[in-house]
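Render this sequence as a predicted structure.
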Amino acid sequence: MNKTDIVKMVARRAGVSEDTALRVIDGVTSVIELSVACGEEVWLRGFGRFKPQDIPAQRRPVPVERGTRKTVVIDIPARRTLAFVPAQSLKERIRDRVGE
């Protein structure tokens, strides 16, 4: 399913035009994006939580060539990533639909 499919389904279920549904979906996604970029968690009850995560800098040995014991240490810079944690009710709905 892609964004166009979601817009069509939302428009049909809400009884609004596809243009209105698109504006609402774009508005929701931009608010989620802005909030997470500012370091805030976004909770959607019954769906899940978008959670920014900071990954610290690391030093890691990596092989110089395949099959050799010679390694070089590289620095991996700190970064921020995004995690999605599904709500318990969503997990249960997905688990109950296995095999359908």
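Summary. The longest helix spans residues 18-37. The helical segments are 3-14, 18-37, 88-96.
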